[in-house]
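Researcher: I'm preparing a figure for a lab meeting and need a structural model of a single chain. I don't have an experimental structure, so a prediction will have to do for now. The sequence is pasted below. Please return the structure as tokens so I can convert it later.
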Amino acid sequence: MRVLFLAFAMLPLWAQSFEVVSIRPHADASRENGKIAARGGMRFSGPRVTTRGASLESLVTFAYNLKPYEIPESGWPKWASDPYDVVAKAEGDAALTGDQFRPLFQALLADRFQLNFHRETKEVQGYLLTVAKGGPKLKESAPDAADYMSMSGGDHAEMTVVGWTMARVVLQFSSQLEGPVLDGTGLAGTYDFKLAWSKSNPVYPSFFIALQEQLGLKLEKHKGPVQLFMIDSAVRPSLDR
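Model: Understood. Here is the structure written out token by token.
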């Protein structure tokens, strides 16, 4: 199924564009083995947002809150990874959250990058999260528990979660596995847990084994529909001096 969009077509009626936008070549960009390397990040400060080394792909990913598995492996312009420094300010003085900045970036992409896209639904390999034999090993959250998550990476990864629903859990697991995860647990509360695993260190279990041993949950392969974000056209932005 193919659905066409202009980049700004999904904006809510109240959304406005940035009041001021500056797009410049990334100051720290360098070429390594013929490829552009960049140091970057995104920082919010009140009504302002500053990005360093942002590419078309990273801007689209942020603006539309895309998951890794919603981004096709092909179809992006050849220059989609070129880095830019973007400084923008919303109208007024109120501080905006990341989610409140997203529609403003959608308008920016439509204006400065002339972005057009469509979404295509495709069956892809993913996972179904279910309760393992023996039942879940999750702690129910306190009624006043604040929503919290921390994660350490590297050879030994550890995730600590407080006050999460299973809907939040499967979203996080989707990002971790770079594939869609559906909730088949039937668990309707909010939960606290710690999960530790490693991709390569034999001292620690793999993600799948850790999930079953530590949380009493398991992942099974499962195909399901995903809406892919397909670029129809885009142009390099005009740059500011």
